[in-house]
Structures are given as structure tokens and as C-alpha cells.
Amino acid sequence: KYGHADQVEIIVVNDPTARMAALQGGQVNMINRVEPKIVDLVKRLPGVTIRAASGRGFYPFNMFCDTAPFDNNDLRMALKLAMDREEMLTKILRGYGEVGNDMPVNKAYPLFAGDFEQRKFDPEKAAALYKKSGHSGSILLRTSDVAFPGAVDAAQLYQQSCAKAGIKIEIKREPGDGYWTEVWNKQPFSLSYWGGRPTQDQM
Fold first, then answer.
1. Which residues 6+ apart lie within 8 Å of 117 measured at CB?
2. Cα distance between residue 12 and residue 8, in whole Å
3. What stretches of the chain adopt beta strand conformation (E)?
4. In angstroms, rounded to a whole number, what is the distance separating the alpha carbons of residues 156 and 141?
5. Which residues touch 139 (CB under 8 Å, ≥6 apart)?
6. pTM exceeds 0.90 for this model
7. Residue of 37, 153, 202, 203 with fewest CB within 10 Å of its CB?
8. Chain segment 87-116, per-residue pLDDT in tens
9. What is the percent of the chain with per-residue pLDDT over 70, rounded to a whole number?
């Protein structure tokens, strides 16, 4: 049963550790974006309840398609097929989510079309496309704790799956302070999150 509040104050706390500390210390009554890897620990805190809710948000690996080397479709497809999405769901999200399919619309939207073939981890095909792209050397991927819960671990897991396709990913862990002003929408390959919209036309 839910009650009501006369007033709600929203406080932005980007650092996940500080956000969790604020909940434990009683400075806030509710937090969102709890890291999946600590959910079981949080459940044991006295007076704390975990509520999992499906939503329209998603966690993308953003590539600038007009910037080398990501302006090469073979390379982009190689990077997509080199991601083990099921492993991401299991190890990073701990099952709290669904596998994405390289588009911003998911099942939470009423007009979602579910007849697209789901892309799956295919290191052999990824390796062939990577070779076809003609690219050589490492590819820089930027991440941060503030990108989304588990984003740093996700980058490392992606690095490992890409290695199985012969693709070398170099990870740069950026500080949370300034990530949304200096990295997001400015660097060609980075991790991010995107909140949902009322309708899929707005995505």
C-alpha cells in the first residue's frame, strides 16, 4: 500500500557509492539505479526494500558513425557481433533487464516490432567482418562509473569478448565529474545510458 507526500525533493548524486551511503545514512528515503551487483546486499539492509521495474531506458555503446573508424559499416557490424549480450545480461545486470538489439525501442513501447532477428554473439563472423574492414590497431572505448551501473565492468567484459574475435579494445576509465560534458556526445566511442520517452517517436 502506498501513501502520499506533501513535498518531494530530488537530489542528484552521480556517484553510486555516495548515493548508497546517503540511503544508508538516512539522508535520502529512496534512490534509483542501484548497481545490480550489490542488490542482494542492499536487500539485507534493515528498512530497505528493492523494487525492480521494467522501463524504456537502455544502456548503449555509442559510436559516431561519421567518424573514423566507425564510419565503416563492416567495422561497426563486427563490433556488434563481438558483444556477448547474454553474458552482459547475466554478469553485469544480474538478470535485471533484457538483451538489446541495436535500436532504442524495446518491448515496453506499445508499437514495438518484435519480428527483427536478434543479433547474437558470433566471434567468427565478427572476425571476418573486422578483417574485411581493413582496420588495424586498438579501438579506444571510454567508460565511467556514472555512465550506468556496472559500466566499467561492462567495458571490461566487452573487451574480453572482442578479443575472441581478434579485436583489440583499449579502455579508458574517465572520471565521473565531467563525463557528461567532456565525453558523452563528444568522444566517438563511449558507454552511456538513455532514459525512455512517452512514445517511441520521440526516441
1. none
2. 13
3. 61-63, 139-143, 169-173, 189-191
4. 10
5. 69, 79, 167, 168, 169, 170, 189
6. no
7. 202
8. 999 999 999 899 999 998 888 888 888 888
9. 99
Burial tier of 10 (Cβ tally within 10 Å: 0-12, 13-18, 19+): exposed
Domain locations in the chain as residue ranges: 61-202
* DSSP type of residue 118: P
Dist CA 14 CA 61 (whole Å):
19
Pick the CATH number of 61-202 from 3.30.70.330, 3.75.10.10, 3.10.105.10, 3.40.47.10: 3.10.105.10
In three-state secondary structure terms, 125 is helix
Cα→Cα distances 34→16, 93, 184, Å: 8, 10, 21
Q: Say how many Å lie between the first and final Cα of the chain, rounded.
A: 33
Instruction: Give the Cα separation of 189 and 146 in Å (integer).
Output: 16
Q: Judge if the upstream peptide bond of residue 69 is cis by omega within 30 degrees of 0.
A: yes
- Tens of pLDDT, residues 171-191: 999 999 999 999 999 999 999
